Amino acid sequence: MSRRILIAGNWKMNMRAASAASLAKGIVDAVGKNSPVEVVLCPPAAYLHTVSEATAGTSVEVGGQNLYPADDGAFTGELNAAMLTDVGCRYVILGHSERRQLMGETDACVSKKLHAAMAGNLVPIVCVGETLEQREAEETEAVIEKQIRGSLEGLDEVRAAGIVIAYEPVWAIGTGKTASKEQAEAVHAFIRGLLADMFSPGVAEQIRIQYGGSVKPGNAAELLAEPNIDGALVGGASLKVEDFAGIIAAAPSA
Ligand code: PEP
After folding, report:
1. Pocket test for ligand 1, best of 6, 7, 10, 165 (most atoms within 8 A of CB)
2. How far is the CA of 22 from the centre of ligand 1 (A)?
3. pLDDT band at 2 (very low <50, low <70, confident <90, very high)
4. What atom of ligand 1 comes closest to residue 96's alpha carbon?
5. 3-state class of 37 per DSSP?
6. Atom 6 (ligand 1): residue with closest C-alpha?
7. Which atom of ligand 1 is nearest to the CA of 215?
8. Pocket-testing residue among 173, 223, 244, ligand 1, by greatest number of atoms within 8 A of Cβ
9. For the chain: N or C, fewer Cβ within 10 A?
10. pLDDT in tens, 120-148
């Protein structure tokens, strides 16, 4: 089964309206029509509309960086799945390690968001990853298993096939340290096996598993060539057209 490579840019809390529009336009031009790679831009909520306008009618998709799992109501400062789709999103990043660490998001919280995303027709990109201490203590697989089982709690087989997992070792995010292709592939293969156990081998084969953590044009090709690495979730290198376009160009074509 061939899974289409998915390259997503997580702009985090960066950009202003003008720079967001020009970055999005630059990516649209670089991607062109009929790209074998699926490309998603995840700007800050304030610029979702700007980026949706800049990518309208193109193959470049838009995603949110978070959502709140409730219908409209008294939730000051939050936004829900309906608002994300209304402003043109198809994807939403959930459980990023920065949100887990800085905002105290738990697996149970990620699971609620996952169900809200899917009920709202968004494709969730569920982030998991171990810290350096956990890796050094040889707890990587146990940590990943706990995060995946907890974050996907209550998900049925039919819906599971449509999600995306992003394996992002915390020690590699924004640090310039990338997992080697062997380290990344080993965890991706472990995740695929876990998904086969939780759902079915057929469903596990359909789920795309992205790698994230200091992906750059210079290391993308070797990571994306691994059999269980189906794309990249890119932070820092998604903020410059040439870097992000270089990562997209490094993806194997089909
Ligand atoms: C991320 O935050 O999802 C990420 C992978 O960041 P960076 O590429 O900067 O390591």
Report:
1. 10
2. 21
3. confident
4. 3
5. coil
6. 235
7. 8
8. 173
9. N
10. 999 999 999 999 999 999 999 999 999 99
Residue appearing with tokens 């990344």: 184
Mean per-residue pLDDT, 222-246 = 98
Apex CA 136: angle with CA 9 and CA 213, to 5°? 10
Question: If you measure from the C-alpha of residue 38 to the centroid of ligand 1, how many angstroms do you get, rounded to a whole number?
Answer: 18
What lines the ligand 1 site, CB under 6 Å? 10, 168, 173-174, 212-215, 233-237
Q: What is the DSSP string of 202-222?
A: HHHHHSEEEEESS--HHHHHH
Task: Quote the pLDDT of residue 189.
Answer: 98
Is there a contact between 178 and 214 (Cβ–Cβ < 8 Å)? Answer: yes
Which residue, among 249, 254, 199, has the nearest Cα to 7 in the 3D structure? Answer: 249
What's the CA gap between 116 and 82, in Å, rounded?
A: 9
Q: What is the pLDDT of residue 138?
A: 97
pTM over 0.90: yes
Question: Which residue's alpha carbon is nearest to atom 1 within ligand 1?
Answer: 235
Q: Which residues pair with 165 in a beta bridge?
A: 126, 209
Whether the pLDDT of residue 254 is over 60: the answer is no
Catalytic residues: 96, 168
